[in-house]
Amino acid sequence: MSGLLLENKSTVIYGGGGAIGGAVARVFAREGARVFIAGRTQAKLDAVARDIEAEGGVVETAQVDVFDQGAVEKHADVVAETAGGIDVALNAVSVMHDQGTLLADLSLDEFMRPIDGFLRTLFITSKAVARHMGGERPGVILTLSEPGAKLAVGGILGHSVSAAGKEAFSRVLAAELAPSNIRVIGIRPHAVVDAPAVGSYTKDLFAQVAAGAGQSVQEFLEGGLAQGTLLKRLPTLNEIAETAAFLASDRARTITGTIANLSAGALVD
Q1: How does pLDDT run across 76-129, given as a tens digit for each residue?
Q2: Coiled coil where (predicted)?
């Protein structure tokens, strides 16, 4: 067995210019994958590509609107033709949403924004890549959710429903695609402690809640959310990326239809 987890694998990361998507792309490339990163902002994709190329990795970028089904399917077709198929895909697309507003003050649009946004792009990207996976060339589709899928706390209605929806989507899709030799696995990290430092939308996401507690976002992450976990810490971007690389590899070939809990014990399944 090769020492590289993803040697000769073709991998597609949607939202590849973001904090989590970029971290996963770098680790995938280090582990021998040919990485295709797609997203809306070319400058962010280019920054990730430079890091990968500086370490000798293979990467290609594409500016793609992941809410445009036709554009995503066209991109997946190009990737598959270029690489001879698609082995691994990750949807790391972020959708800004409300956290901290209770039902009485929450508008319908604010409630629906993460539900429609996250699930729409997850459907579009999964359908586009699944056509190019499976058979003798096993495939892996990775998804991302959050502890809000199971937490019972106020102020996260839309966020919680969207996270639960992503996890349900992953489980059902795993059942559908298993006969085609495609695994589907969800990854559920808690809020990422070092994400604000690399320009993630985490800072804006938690700004309202942190301000209500009289804290900066970083203080809220480290002193609030982290202390609510069993390990008294939050995951890092690299820890999420390393987990994704393992789950995408043949060493995890019996894992499907489940959620990898990276909440540091905020949730105990």
Answers
A1: 999 999 999 999 999 999 888 778 889 999 999 999 999 999 999 999 999 999
A2: none
- pLDDT score of 51: 97
Cα–Cα distance for residue pair 264/250, rounded to 1 Å: 25
| Residue in 84, 171, 167 with CA at minimum distance from that of residue 133 | 84
Domain that holds residue 160: 10-192+236-262
Q: Looking at residue 1, what is its pLDDT?
A: 44
Tens-place pLDDT, residues 228-237 = 899 998 999 9
Residue 157 lies in a domain: yes
* Helix or strand holding residue 13 (H, E): strand 10-14
Pick 136 or 193 by higher pLDDT. Answer: 136
Q: Is the pLDDT of residue 155 over 70?
A: yes
Give the span between the Cα atoms of 168 and 26, in whole angstroms: 28
CA end-to-end span of the chain: 32
Interatomic CA distance for residues 21 and 97, integer angstroms: 18
Cα–Cα distance list, 173 to 19, 122, 165, 188, 193 (Å): 26, 11, 12, 17, 30
The CATH number given to whatever domain includes residue 162 is 3.40.50.720
Residue 85 forms part of a structural domain: yes
Q: Which residues contact 108 (CB under 8 A, 6 or more apart)?
A: none
In a domain, 227, yes or no: no
